[in-house]
Amino acid sequence: MEKKTAFPEKLLVLCVDRDDDIGQITNFKTPIIGRNNVLKVAIDFAVKRPEDSDSNALFAAIQIYDRMRKIMKKDNVEIAVVAGTPEEGIEADMKISMELTTVLSRFDAKGVVLVSDGPTDEQVLPIIQSKIPVISVKRVIVQQSRGIEESFVLVLRYLEKLVREEKYRKYSLGLPGLFIILTTVMSYTVPQYIWPLFMTVLGAILVLKGFSLDEKIKQVYFESPITFLSLIASLALISITTMLGVSEVISSGVETLTEALGSFFLVLIGGQVYVADLMIISTSLVVAGHIADSLMSNKPVHWSEYMLLIFTLLFRQVLVETARLLKGEGSVEALIYWIIFSLMVTVLAASFLATRRKLETPAKEEILEEVHEEI
After folding, report:
1. How far is CA 357 from CA 230, 300, 301, 367, 368, in A?
2. N or C: which end of the chain has fewer CB within 10 A?
3. Segment 182-192, tens digit of pLDDT
4. Ranges of each domain in the chain
């Protein structure tokens, strides 16, 4: 007895264009349902964009549809095209989900054959599987000639795509343009540090993108904008101060590591402030920014944050005396004096704030009780 292959009762051949090249080029609105409509779109798209692989995916979907109609009942097979958005991402997936729902409301399919021109479109596979079983996935791979001339033309087409399409322009034109501007500005301001700074900026961008730090930075910016800005200012100040301090120490020709460390903190910048001063200021900026964020958003500020800010500012003289001692110019008595003085001021301020907080808490509770009694 001949064994029959089991097919779903109704089969949908679905072509997915996640970046909506078809809609952008042909101006046809998706979803597109039916062989004649899909064929019109495929021909129109192939005429306007013959080098695009989406046209091959459309014709491959039509080919699969025709073959399945010969195997199954004609009315039990349908073909459709759904598309996302040019930016892809979540918006594209939501649009594809809604369009697939529309297709299934018109044709009650029990299984689907997904036709794709690459891995990008197949990212929507979980969305499709959540609505209908996927029987098969057909990836259309366009065969390319290996000749030198054909490869050259193909590279030119990809370069043209990098320049013309908006989602690629910010990487192919925007970032190089930014580096050119930075290089030009730094060549006039700090010519001797131009290449170290350039490589530092490039390395920072690679680290940000590689570890997805840009997404975390966005989260910090939206949750605590003042803290974010103070952190950026602090990092910039530390970077510039460190470079200037290290350059001055190298040119001074110190011999020992301890002397070099002490000299680094005592380098005068602009003839007025030490490197140690700028280090303390940059650290204080972060703490002050966090306190300002809490006050602006009406969040309670813990007294320990104020203590940290006070101690950071007082630690300036401790750092200076330590540096002088490392250089052999200071005294242990002066260092001990400033350590004790800093700790005493910090402890007194902490006691004052803690006592004030304890006194304010019962007063607030009494007010709340009175309001409750009046209610």
Report:
1. 28, 11, 11, 16, 17
2. N
3. 777 767 766 66
4. 11-139, 145-211, 212-370
